């Protein structure tokens, strides 16, 4: 199996029953992606596959043979943070930080979904997509990512500052 992770090719004969999350953490030593519920309910394991967000705990690694995966380690660097990572710092969008990698990956994909005109439950006009990526849209679109610390206000503010249209 070959998989590109953070623009680096990895090749191996891994167990076909292994989740993508376990491949990333245990085999490739990319521990930024977190194992939360291991049932797809919390979003801590969110990564990007070809730019789309997925729960890595629910995905078999073999399904992503030949695909491109981006984890939090592939977003920004310690010397040059992604603008969303900087906004998380500015707005205290984390407390313990456990959910932050999944929140960041999910928000990046969510912004792309919004730009492509994908509606959400709270989108007011389904024919033109949402008029604005405001805090209500962000809260709905990020509802699959949970934060046990309750840092939602900071998370939403960081996302809205980076991608949105209101000044929360």
Uncertain residue segments: none
The name of the CATH superfamily of the largest domain reads [2Fe-2S]-binding domain
- How would you characterize the largest beta sheet? 5 strands, mixed
Approximately how much helix is present in the residues?
25-40%
Mass-distribution shape? globular
**Do you know the CATH topology of the largest domain?**
DNA polymerase, domain 1
Proportion of strand residues = 5-15%
Give the C-alpha Rg. Answer: 16 Å
Topology, number of strands: 5
Q: In what order do the strands lie side by side in the largest sheet?
A: 2-1-5-3-4
CATH class categorisation of the largest domain:
Mainly Alpha
Which structural class matches the secondary elements? alpha+beta
Count of distinct structural domains: 2
Q: What's the overall average pLDDT, rounded? A: 94
Order of helices and strands: EEHEEEHHHH
CATH architecture of the largest domain: Orthogonal Bundle
Q: What descriptive keywords fit this protein?
A:
single chain, 168 residues, alpha+beta, Ubiquitin-like (UB roll), DNA polymerase, domain 1, 2 domains, 5-stranded mixed beta sheet, 5 helices, 30% helix
Describe this entry's structure for a reader.
This protein is of the alpha+beta class and 168 residues long. It has two domains: 2-74, Ubiquitin-like (UB roll); 83-163, [2Fe-2S]-binding domain (DNA polymerase, domain 1, Orthogonal Bundle), CATH 1.10.150.120. It has five helices and five strands. It has a five-stranded mixed beta sheet, covered by helices on one side. A hairpin with a 2-residue loop joins strand 3 and strand 4. The longest helix has 16 residues, at 100-115. The chain starts with a strand and ends in a 5-residue tail after the last helix.
